[in-house]
Backbone:
């Protein structure tokens, strides 16, 4: 611990004295000069009036968001952005000035030599901190650099935030730097997804790939002779068509789907933070939800596959895209297209190419597919389509695809696949494997988007491979909606996003300024805690010591005004249900969870998790709930020898069955409600389990 603190102090001293590093991702270059730029209690943001309205979001839009983030992260008061034609080495009325501007003639290049609009320059003097890019998006990434540098200083104990004078330049090594979330087998509301975009943006990730349709995989239900269990197997399509649409039957769970307005609002939130949503509707495999709606489209013997030779199949898929393409602002969409019947290779390739042409003509968008090696000797997938590599050997080998002129995104599962909690021992890890990412590539080097194999260097490319677009890491939910809560998914993603941000922006062993693992480990906790614009950690400031609130006495209902508290925490109380209605109502509720009286059941992300304990009637029972990010348990009447854990039963494939621990945020907003009849007394919520 002392060594870690010493390293943090050393890094902060470096930042204050001479350099703008380390941070996540690292900055490509910075040359210090004499002097410092110091933030005072008030700081002014100035937008170059010549470029204020350029782009969508515009430079001024990004400035408004930056202002809010500056106050959120650094607790400095930022005055409303103003538009001026220039600021030349002078503060305005003695107030430190952050100046945002463009130079459209600036040229930044990816490692493959292609131009990128995401680069930015820094010019820091005593009075002005200038961020300049060729586009507003580049300037946006420059504001993330400033915020991270300030957060590192404050976390290291600095009383004020200051930056060394000097000049720097930074740009990403790869175009695509994203994460994929399996929303087809796990429901997520749009507010949570928007918060994920905001968090990802802090580490300069620029895509969220939404896998928006899929089904659980249970061979006995899907492929058993004469078995019609496929009709009830969990499958979902998340985009909700408008009332009266011919697609209405495609969405079996209206309460687990996104309305157009909700999606557009979320998409805008992401765009306002530099993150593009890449939507995916997965066909012709993984299509059970479509076949549950229209069984005539089903491939014989494979309920999760479409029959591409049936006359109405492709028109139906086109009608789905017709409905939802106008929702999507991204220049690309994904049609999935993996794990289809290899015996139908020509049908598959014809379908993929037809959908590429159709979507391109309809919306001027290009498509991506999951890499799939379909064995055809007469047809080939169009080179207008990007292949998202994920597996050897079932996928086309990336180096061969690149050599044939295909564009490739790296999602290789050996490095980049995660899964929710599973009951089979864990096919994929809960977060990205740090050992692999820092030193698991051939030769002991770190991973980067040009690395596809941890063991075979011939399957890897150079960083300047012309058609290597970048990388997307993926979090799957193969084991269903009940295996994890939304916040547990965030816990899996948080550190993974940040280390991936470093590797996908800067690479490994490329830049002299790139982070070491020790540097990353030192600064990550500080930056995770300071990430602005959201509160996915569900942090609250305790009123006294570690006490969030304390309510002695008795209550039937009470609003506390605190929406949710993240683990670790301890919630203690006594409760006496009324015998007239002992098993109804809610003991506690919050933004992320509820605790129901019946069987002491937690509710989170639309799922119920019963403790299986029945509260006695007409007498007080003391309950003490302890939660960490790995588990939640209760002590009943102080019985420390017999903790009772909340579990989930995972039994998706029909072959494995296991209990998994659940972690819940504290339902801290409301005591009593929903018909609760009884008394709650002596309530106390403190931080720490």
Residues:
């Amino acid at each position: 611990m002392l060594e870690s603190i010493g390293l943090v102090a050393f890094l902060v001293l470096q930042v204050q004295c001479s350099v703008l590093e380390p941070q996540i991702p690292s900055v490509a270059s910075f040359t210090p000069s004499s002097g410092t730029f110091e933030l005072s209690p008030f700081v002014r943001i100035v937008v170059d009036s010549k470029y204020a309205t350029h782009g969508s979001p515009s430079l001024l839009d990004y400035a408004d968001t930056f202002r809010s983030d500056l106050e959120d992260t650094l607790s400095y008061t930022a005055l409303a952005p103003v538009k001026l034609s220039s600021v030349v080495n002078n503060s305005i009325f003695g107030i430190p000035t952050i100046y945002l501007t463009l130079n459209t003639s600036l040229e930044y290049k990816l490692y493959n030599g292609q131009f990128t609009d995401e680069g930015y320059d820094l010019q820091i003097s005593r009075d002005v901190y200038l961020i300049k890019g060729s586009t507003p998006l580049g300037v946006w990434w420059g504001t993330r650099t400033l915020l991270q540098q300030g957060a590192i200083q404050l976390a290291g104990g600095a009383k004020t935030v200051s930056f060394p004078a000097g000049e720097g330049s930074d740009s990403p090594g790869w175009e695509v730097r994203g994460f994929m979330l399996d929303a087809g087998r796990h429901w997520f509301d749009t507010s949570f997804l928007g918060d994920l975009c905001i968090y990802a943006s802090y580490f300069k990730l620029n895509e969220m790939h939404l896998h928006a349709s899929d089904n659980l995989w249970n061979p006995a239900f899907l492929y058993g002779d004469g078995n019609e269990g496929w009709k009830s197997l969990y499958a979902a399509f998340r985009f909700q068509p408008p009332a009266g649409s011919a697609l209405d039957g495609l969405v079996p769970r209206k309460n687990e789907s996104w309305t157009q307005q909700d999606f557009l609002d979320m998409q805008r939130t992401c765009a306002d933070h530099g993150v593009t949503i890449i939507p995916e509707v997965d066909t012709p495999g993984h299509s059970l939800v479509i076949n549950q709606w229209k069984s005539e489209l089903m491939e014989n013997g494979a309920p999760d596959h479409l029959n591409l030779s049936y006359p109405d199949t492709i028109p139906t898929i086109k009608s789905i895209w017709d409905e939802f393409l106008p929702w999507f602002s991204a220049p690309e969409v994904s049609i999935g297209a993996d794990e289809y019947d290899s015996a139908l290779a020509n049908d598959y390739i014809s379908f993929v190419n037809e959908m590429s042409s159709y979507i391109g003509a309809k919306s001027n968008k290009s498509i991506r597919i999951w890499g799939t090696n379909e064995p055809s000797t007469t047809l080939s997938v169009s080179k207008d389509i990007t292949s998202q590599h994920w597996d050897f050997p079932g996928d086309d080998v990336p180096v061969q695809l690149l050599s044939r002129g295909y564009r490739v995104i790296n999602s290789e599962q050996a490095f980049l696949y995660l899964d929710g909690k599973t009951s089979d021992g864990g096919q994929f890890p809960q977060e990205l494997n740090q050992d692999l990412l820092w030193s698991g590539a051939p030769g002991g080097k770190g991973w980067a988007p040009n690395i596809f194999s941890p063991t075979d260097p011939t399957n890897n490319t150079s960083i300047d491979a012309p058609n290597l677009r970048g990388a997307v890491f993926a979090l799957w939910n193969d084991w269903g909606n009940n295996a994890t809560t939304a916040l547990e998914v965030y816990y899996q993603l948080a550190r993974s996003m940040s280390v991936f941000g470093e590797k996908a922006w800067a690479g490994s062993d490329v830049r002299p300024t790139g982070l070491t693992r020790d540097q990353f480990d030192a600064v990550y906790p500080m930056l995770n805690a300071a990430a602005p614009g959201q509160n996915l950690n569900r942090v609250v400031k305790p009123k006294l010591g570690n006490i969030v609130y304390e309510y002695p006495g008795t209550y039937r209902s009470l609003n506390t005004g605190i929406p949710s508290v993240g683990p670790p925490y301890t919630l203690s109380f006594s409760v006496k249900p009324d015998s007239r209605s002992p098993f109804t109502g809610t003991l506690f509720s919050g933004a992320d969870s509820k605790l129901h009286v019946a069987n002491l059941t937690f509710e989170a992300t639309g799922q119920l998790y019963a403790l299986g304990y029945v509260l006695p009637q007409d007498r007080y029972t003391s309950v003490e709930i302890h939660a960490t990010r790995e588990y939640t348990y209760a002590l009943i009447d102080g019985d420390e020898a017999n903790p009772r854990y909340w579990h989930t039963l995972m039994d998706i494939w029909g072959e494995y069955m296991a209990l998994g621990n659940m972690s819940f945020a504290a339902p801290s907003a409301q005591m009593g409600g929903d018909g609760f009849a009884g008394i709650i007394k002596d309530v106390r919520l403190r931080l720490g389990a």
The longest helix spans residues 136-155. Residues 586 and 597 are 6 Å apart (CA to CA).
